[in-house]
User: What shape does this take?
Amino acid sequence: MSGQRVDVKVVMLGKEFVGKTSLVERYVHHRFLLGPYQNTIGAAFVAKAINVEGRVVTLGIWDTAGSERYEAMSRIYYRGAKAAIVCYDVTDSSSFQRVKFWVKELQSCEQHCRIYLCGTKLDLLENDRSKRQVDFHDVRDYAEEIKGRHYETSSKTGQNVDELFQNVAEDYVHFTPFQVMTEENGVDLSQKKETYFSCCHH
Ligand SMILES: Nc1nc2c(ncn2[C@@H]2O[C@H](COP(=O)(O)OP(=O)(O)OP(=O)(O)O)[C@@H](O)[C@H]2O)c(=O)[nH]1
Assistant: This one.
């Protein structure tokens, strides 16, 4: 099996402004973009190949738009995802409410998708811990309850970002019943063209 190609579809979900795009930028391009915030429209795709125990694992990452206006579109992008990184901002409790929405949605529509809860903007607490609005232990308990994983990251400093994506890839390799990935059954980029009315709506 060593040397075999493995493609993993990963979707980024979470309220607008929580830092999904920044997380992907940090992981893929090792940078933190300064300047005015630009919201994602629809979704963006990027792929990154990494090595996991001698296998090349390609993470195909769909960065979705957090605005509720694009909610129906985000559903297209999580279809068939093997991992969902559901983000919230540690300084914004309302963003954690949105996490619960996406978790429920994934639990009912994508039962084989592993869930990674990600608290972003950890650097904002460095000089002022009172800015924290989402308790670490509450989220850890919630992650256990949903059989997910929990991380807190900073895209500004890079803290925990590589670890998060590396664990996504490792978990996939470790916990997925192994199948030979080919062009036919690997990540299908044409999925974005599928109709989104066939999934559940709330
Ligand atoms: N200090 C700090 N700011 C961050 C961090 N991550 C993101 N930001 C800032 O938060 C704002 C929103 O970041 P984005 O990555 O665009 O957020 P998003 O979740 O992709 O937003 P949508 O595309 O609207 O869904 C930007 O101004 C970023 O610079 C972080 O780790 N630390």
User: Anything to note?
Assistant: Confidence is low (pLDDT under 50) at residues 180-185, 187-202. Helices lie at 20-29, 71-78, 93-109, 136-145, 161-175. Strands lie at 5-14, 43-52, 55-64, 83-89, 114-120, 149-152.
